[in-house]
Design a protein that fits this description.
The structure is a single chain. Strand 3, helix 1 and strand 4 form a beta-alpha-beta unit. With about 260 residues, this protein is of the alpha/beta class. The protein has an 8-stranded mixed beta sheet with strand order 1-2-4-3-5-6-7-8, with helices on both faces.
């Protein structure tokens, strides 16, 4: 569906069903250079099993108008306006990589509006290699290739896919090379408050990590889980791009967490 926030069109995937604010709502936030397709399997399952889902292309990405946010704080302020426009008072937040940083800052200010928060393939703070950022500024195709080569785990590089006929590396590369990757990466690199915020979260929280994540390595993910006072779910033989690389296992971990809360 298309909605308008700040007079700009925003595309929002709803999992193949009309959005219904009377149902428990899950908001999925994509990472750097991504879009709603990150969450294809997860959004569809939840939408057809008693939930309403929102997976926006953040401004400046894919089907949404506008410019990418230069800071994480700006994206969290936008998220507050977006949810107010949709009419959602309470939400389960799910963020991959940079998307989790946005969720984290939103949750800091709007804790009563957050039913739960889930971090996927991420950390409380995400340092970014300066060479990657500079490459993204001058050659997005090359930067997208670097991200995918580094971001996917061993099974994906062998061509193994949860969806027959679909190659997750190729899909991700095609999405990233047409999105504002450099702006996203700089926003991640500049964000330095994640450790402090993650220690203060009061809502239900979870962390889904990948054993072969080279972009936000396990050490950083485990520190996030420690800050959040939780035991994380670790998906073996997967890399940073968990939602599209290991969609079934990511979905199962989300289901177990969110359905338990709703019960």
């Amino acid at each position: 569906m298309l909605v308008q926030v700040n007079k700009l069109n925003v595309f929002v995937a709803t999992g193949g069903k009309d959005f219904d604010s009377s149902l428990p709502t899950i908001l999925f936030l994509h990472g750097s250079g991504g879009d709603h397709r990150t969450w294809a399997m997860q959004t569809r399952w939840f939408a057809f099993n008693g939930f309403s889902v929102l997976a926006p292309d953040l401004p400046g990405h894919s089907l949404s108008d506008g410019n990418a946010f230069e800071t994480i704080e700006e994206s969290a302020e936008w998220l507050e306006k977006f949810l107010k426009y949709i009419g959602v008072d309470k939400v389960h937040l799910v963020g991959h990589s940079q998307g989790f940083l946005t969720a984290l800052v939103y949750a800091e200010k709007n804790s009563k509006a957050v039913s739960s928060i889930t971090a996927i393939g991420t950390a409380a703070e995400i340092p970014v290699n300066e060479h990657l950022i500079k490459t993204a500024e001058v050659n997005r195709d090359k930067a997208a290739e670097m991200m995918c080569n580094w971001g996917f785990g061993p099974y994906a590089h062998k061509g193994i896919s949860s969806v027959p006929g679909m190659q997750p590396i190729g899909i991700s590369r095609a999405i990233m090379k047409n999105n504002p990757l450099a702006v996203d990466l700089r926003a991640c690199a500049a964000f330095k408050r994640g450790n402090d915020i993650s220690k203060k979260l009061s809502m239900d929280r979870h962390c889904i990590l990948a054993s072969h994540d080279k972009m936000t390595p396990m050490k950083a993910g485990l520190l996030l889980a420690k800050n959040m006072s939780i035991v994380p779910t670790v998906i073996e033989n997967a890399g940073h791009m968990l939602p599209i690389e290991a969609p079934k296992k990511t979905l199962n971990a989300l289901r177990q967490f969110i359905e338990t809360i709703e019960r």
